[in-house]
Amino acid sequence: MKRILVQMRMTIDVPDGLGQQAMHRASQRGCTFTALVVEGLHRVLAETPPESVPLLPTWGDGTGKVLVDLSDRDAVYEVLNSDGLR
């Protein structure tokens, strides 16, 4: 049975400073940027995930009414961009 090598091509956005550091480190190690990223992904994916992720807090007006759910990015932006207090 033949083994087929499957690879996924991706584009990622990396902050300039981080990308430069990674390129420099890859050069020091004598490997490619891709090899460095793949090694980093293997390390992160080998870590044991936390048992539970704490919920982000919500904030209300004292009556129990929630003004914005901090886990909802769009709702936070809407409040931040609004013209007045609610």
Helix fraction by DSSP (H/I, runs of at least 4): 40-55%
What Rg is obtained from the alpha carbons, in whole angstroms? 22 Å
By helix and strand content, what is the structural category?
mainly alpha
By DSSP (H or I, 4+ residues per run), the number of helices equals 3
Strand order of the largest sheet: 1-2
**Average pLDDT number:** 83
SSE order: HHEEH
Strand content: 5-15%
Number of distinct beta strands: 2
The largest β sheet comes out as: 2 strands, antiparallel
How many angstroms does the end-to-end distance come to?
Answer: 66 Å
Low-confidence stretches: none
Shape: elongated
How many domains in all?
A: 2
Describe this structure in words.
By secondary structure, the protein is mainly α. It folds into two domains: 16-46, no CATH class; 56-86, no CATH class. The chain has three helices and two strands, in the order ααββα. It has helices at 16-29, 33-46, 73-80; strands at 58-60, 66-69. A two-stranded antiparallel ribbon has the order 1-2. A hairpin with a 5-residue loop joins strand 1 and strand 2. The longest helix has 14 residues, at 16-29. The radius of gyration is 22 Å and the shape is elongated. The N and C termini lie far apart (66 Å). The relative contact order is 0.07.
Short description:
The chain is mainly alpha-helical. The protein has helices at residues 16-29, 33-46, 73-80, and strands spanning 58-60, 66-69. Strand 1 (58-60) and strand 2 (66-69) form a beta hairpin.
Keywords:
mainly alpha, 86 residues, two-stranded antiparallel sheet, 2 strands
